[in-house]
Amino acid sequence: MSKDDFLVVRGLKKFFDVGRPSLFSRRSRYLHAVDGVNFTLRHSEVIALVGESGCGKSTLALLLMGLEDPTEGTITYEGRNITHLNDHERKDVRRKIQMVFQDPYESLNPTQTIEDIITEPLIVHGFANNANREERVKKALEDAGLKPADVYLKRYPHELSGGQRQRVVIAAALVLEPEIILADEPVSMLDVSIRAEIINLLAELRITRQIAVIFITHDLGSVGFFADRVAVMYLGRIVEIGTMLEVLENPQHPYTKALISVIPVPNPRLRHERIILQGETPNPIDIPTGCRFHPRCPVALTACNVSDPPFVAQSKTHQTACLLLVK
Amino acid sequence: MESTTQPPEPQNQWMARFLEFWQTFKKNRNGLIGLGMLAFILLLAIFAPVIAPYDSSSTTSAGLSDIYNPPSAQHWFGTDDAGQDVFSNFIFGARISLTVGFFAAFISIIIGGVFGLVAGFFGGRWENFIMRFTDIFLVIPDLPLMVVIVALTKPSLLNIIFVIGLLGWTTTARVVRSQTLAVKSRKFVLRARAIGAGKGHIVIHHILPLVMPILVVQAVLVVSLAILNESALSFIGLGDPTALSWGQMLNYAFGRGAMSTGAWWALVVPGFGIVWVVLGLTLLGQGLEKVLNPRLETHHLMPGRLSVQKEAGTSASNKEFLLEVQNLSINYVTEGQAPARAVENVSFALKEGELIGLVGESGCGKTTLMLSLLRLLPAAGQIVNGRVFFNGKDLVTLSDEDLNDIRWSGISIVFQGAMNALNPVRTVGDQIAEAITKHLPAFPKEHLQTRVVELLDLVGIAADHKDNYPHQYSGGMRQRAMIAMALACNPQVIIADEPTTALDVMIQAQILDLLDSLRKKLGLAIVFVTHDLGVVAEICDKVLVMYGGVTAEYADVDVIYNDPKHPYTQELLKAFPDLTKPKKKLSSIPGYPPRLDALPAGCRFAPRCPAAIARCHTEQPALHKITDAHNASCHLIEASQ
What is the set of domains in chain A, with CATH numbers? Predict the structure, then answer.
């Protein structure tokens, strides 16, 4: 294991039992939410997991957080296998891996004050009686950009705007001094003008606190300057992974190409041909044969519905799973 | 709200919460009446020895002449079968009835609350067991069971309290369970788990505070049920003979000839007590529910009230435009407060086949403006000035009937949040058909289904999905169905309110493509409301950037992106991620749009504007004409001209 292998995910799978297709059938059916995901996160690295809804990115987040139990595969954190832990063992890891949720209106308890919300993680982890508790709470709030902290402590979530609430969620994660933050669509519910604030905040934290970020989003456009690497997911698998510039400027997988082409460009003079895929991500109960993208792929070959494409390396850091690239 | 208004001590925090609750509660007349009725009886009961004219135990001395005396100066409500003062017994009876009611309800609430919480939170086997147990209790008729149990045990007050309490928890358990289930599925519970909180912590800190309000309302109702049950038991002779509750008074009066002697007062007075308390509790329960359960608060869209004079405004409509909005201003009026100026002096115009983007952050008046075009504002919204010309007709002054003809057949709306706007229990085809028949009653029935298929085809949904329900549709298909519904009556203008906001980028691109092709195919004019500048750049012809209810900038799309004059437009563009420059750091606009009840004195954007000068903070800028097709409201433009 190299020093760089901070969080290692190997062959991770999560199937949900969705019952039998009919009353008299004996065969159970499974929803293949996450179907063999591999990636490695390095210290204070930002990796963006991009994909449409139904690609399994949110389930992947819950697996990494230990909020769902994987069907197969392993998650290793600092050399320790954390795939299946009991509540007691998990608590320790939880402190190191924190999560920021999509909807800041739903993820805060309306009956708690901001102080209650930020103090709660300390209580849960038994730091509540420490002398510096108040200090930690205030520092977390100010690090999350809510300055001065005193103004916010006694307020309730409904008195704050969406952007401020998302900062509170981030502060509640920061107070435990985590090493990884998992951000599941942290800006998709916010106005464009506020999105930049939250993304900049996360980008800052990785510099000031050396926090690694797994940034889950459907919008490739929003990860631009801030991600080190980008992984594109489709139907439970990563289909392309590479550094940010490799993926954005030289996408190889037809799906990545399409995703990039539909990102709105804020300039009418640069209106360009968009590759609009028809239909939506297929139901993850009946995964297509061969390459799982072939039914929507604009450049699919006949071979694509038979063989599952292997990963092909374009460079040391850039890999794509597409038959067209197999030479 | 400033920090100074926030109380520092936790006790004061509870006090503040209570005060806040009281502020809302006191507006509820029924609740107040109920509270008053209850307080009255409680005071009577507490101060019974002081208030009652006769001691409750002065029984034995009664002679025959004292029995069933009608109301008189000595005995306001007459005497009963034992020659006792009915009024005094009524007051002391209140003590017994209320005691039984409150203690029995306490037992019920504790049992029901714990069962409901455990079943709802832990689920699985626990839930199955508890809920089946509850079901069994529910099908057993309470009163006969109580009669049997009380008859078998010694009829003491304590026994009665326990029997009523132990049998009255079922509804509470069910109500608490469903509320627990609802709270459990909310995201903040998941977040607490992610932090590492255990089950006990989550129940105490997250579930209980949100179940409590329901439990309080439930408790009030259970108390009244318990009082009724006690009265019923006492009335049929199973009460504690030593404790003269209202039910017991009824029992004695009924059993000892009050009816035959015409002594109505002996029956009416305790009966009145029961009715009074139960009514009081019910009213209080309703009042509490209104305050504690905000979901009951209704919010209707209603035609905005008009306060524009028909003669006001002289500009005529321009034949060239299909939809022309001139100097539209809308206020929200709340009694006792200055009107909130939600939209002020906004103008734009739209030709056939044109697409205009209405852009701004949340709270910039976009939705108010959009709803006002068809006068669909909430009740407090008033159009105070301006004109909305559609085909030469002024929609602001049109009669309601005439406007109804234009709604949907002339101008229709694609609402935000396609899932909530569709009825979940009817097929999509049905709902589209309904949209047609509702607005075009004369539409021939036999062509209805063909028309529905035609509309679905127009938005790219295959005909065989016609009879599916909304939940069988994906997010993108639902949005398509909403568009089909908007097209149902061949409108000339479609207002699309954030139609792509909740969708993935790929589906967003599909919907934009669809709208673009529809306007080319059908010559539709589209008003596209969004906060996303990127979407606007893709398909719009013109852009109206709104800020704090006023026009910040209005121009052709190319000008907005390549030569923006208003600092707000410029800042918005900087905040938008541009994939052509992936390394560029995004900048955000610090601060938030102004609240409508606290608009700045000068330019509404001044507090956030990086280029603001002194004048900007004191004087509201006018809309300056830069070219014929380019307007912006900023003092700096005037300075540079």
Answer: 7-19+28-325 (3.40.50.300)
